[in-house]
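Journal club side-thread
Mid-discussion, someone asked how the predicted structure for our own chain would compare to the paper's figures. Pasting it here so we can look after the session.
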Amino acid sequence: MRTITLKQEMYLWAKQVKTAGHSIGFVPTMGFLHEGHLALVEEAKRDNDYVIMSIFVNPLQFGQGEDYTTYPRDEKRDKKLAEEAGVDILFMPSVDDMYKHKKSIKLMVTEKTDKLCGATRPGHFDGVVTVLTKLFHLTTPNRAYFGLKDVQQFAIVTALVEEFDFPVEIVPVDTVREPSGLAISSRNVKLTREDKQKAPALFNSLLLGKKLIIEGETDANVIIKTVRHYLDQQLGENVEVDYVEILTFPYLEDLSEVNGKVVIAVAVRFFTARLIDNIIVD
């Protein structure tokens, strides 16, 4: 595995590989790698000649009071895991290199951000599409891999690629879970022992919502109220439920009657970490 830290070096390597007729799979991450990231690498290796993984904690997608400075980082461990997984290029640019020029152009997401995480994190997805635009240009991938745990990010990245004609296929990968059902996340390490015991309630609440749909419930409000009530009971007073929503998938449109493919999504704020999860039901 080769580690690249400079934008220009990354671009020249990718250009050489593409000119030689090889395909590139790209896995963008913010590091502190876990099984979910490695599942993306596995898919990318299956589909492509070379795999690039980026590790970059993007300051533009953290709002005021969010955990940019305390976001978990472990460069040595990340390099070891990436190499063991079969990553060919580990791209680890600095903030100064990625954003060396004062911005005169701003990318802004105008749809799909008034719900789910976007409703309480203004500007977050503007930062996501900004950094991905840069990373797509620098790595020139044939395919880029995103976990469905962050279903809103997947929908917005898909829209970015379609609307701006990026020559890259966005590949969704199912959420990887712990044996308890808890979706694997870099932020899980910040949970207290008590919170870690409560956290599987997120996935169980989604399974409850799915069960209601399978049994014939079509009123979205009934399902949302049932799922939220379950979370309130299981998590207790010291844990805040940010949202429970049911939307169409993959367009994330509001609905009152469940029909076709939908996503049930939840977000919960523990004292030390905010967790999200979702389940897609057809």
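Post-session note: The longest strand covers residues 240-248.
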